[in-house]
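Lab channel / #folding
Pinned by the channel admin:
"Please post every new chain as: sequence first, then the structure tokens as a reply. Keep commentary short and put observations after the output so the thread stays searchable."

First post following the new format, from NK:
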Amino acid sequence: MFQRFLPARLCALLSLVFAACLLLAPLRPAWSYETRAGSILDAAGHPVQLRGVNWFGFETSNHVVHGLWARHWQDMILQMQELGFNAVRLPLCPATLQDAAPTSIDYQRNPDLAGLNSLQILDRVVMELNRRGMYILLDHHSSDCKSISELWYTPTYSEAQWLADLAFIAERYRHVPGVIGIDLKNEPHGAATWGSGNPATDWNLAAERAAAVVLRLASHWLVAVKGVGENPLCSSQGGHFWGGNLEPLACRPLNIPAHRLLLLPHVYGPDVFSQPYFNAADFPANMPAIWELHFGRFMQQGYTVLLGEFGGLYGQGLASDRLWQDALVDYLVSKGVRGSFYWAWNPNSGDTGGILQDDWHSVRSDKLQLLQRLWGNVGGATGKPH
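Reply from TO:
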């Protein structure tokens, strides 16, 4: 492990070299991603199957992916690959992009991160995932590095700041082949509306503004857009998870280039929040109709829909949650959707647990088997384009 250590001054120099290389790289890279007829395609037109997992921490006050108190960061990436994952969604928050001081790192286990700030570590993680041929979806997760805001702005974080941060991310990582794009805002809900005509609350209009900013800088990226929670227009009432309600799309389509748009709803089961339909007499047989209403019907309309988050304790909490996850995977397979971003790699997600168990080494083999059933034997690009 000691041989990985680099003096802080040299680390800073390498970070400057990294940034300079990104700025000097050609404006139009040879790789790109697009959505077409329900699939994600690479520049050669080959389908990309995202066998993804969420690895959180950069969006918290730790300003670094979690688990580095227990093991080396590269070892976890290697384990992800060995388990079959080929994509990672990385939640972020603004302070992480502003050279914050990371915490909760055991530097005896991670000596190569000593002296690095949060942005430099983010660079390291992105570039290592890319080097290993994995895909990365960057996610603007929280504005205050603590909680998920209802809207894309707050009293202390303006829309202008949000757009500037999205532009910063696009400019910094647009030349990294494995980065497929950005999730514009995590889980709009509460005051967030869709199609109401109010620019202060209409998430669909804000997403269009944000997509325009990102695609001006990274025209080869995908922009991932979630739904909202409850919505007063063109929407059934009740039972939607934050970011999981795409129903208003039927009345107010997004003015975002269709080949760059990835719909990324979130959906959870009984372990996370009790919805009335979980108590129905025919549960879980009633669930496909609900998923179809909330987001699934748009798959038949040519949109590419991928779950940005789903998960749960899978039998270590409510028995019904395991039934729910099994039914969801069956539904996705029936729709021909063979990818997702599972929540989460981390075991320290209180209401879902993770792929890893509490020791940060052992694997929940039952969850992995669930995902292997989702992934199936479908072909498709599994690494970055060359």
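NK: The beta strands are 33-36, 39-42, 51-54, 87-92, 135-140, 179-183, 222-225, 261-263, 340-342.
TO: also worth noting, The first strand starts at residue 33 and ends at 36.
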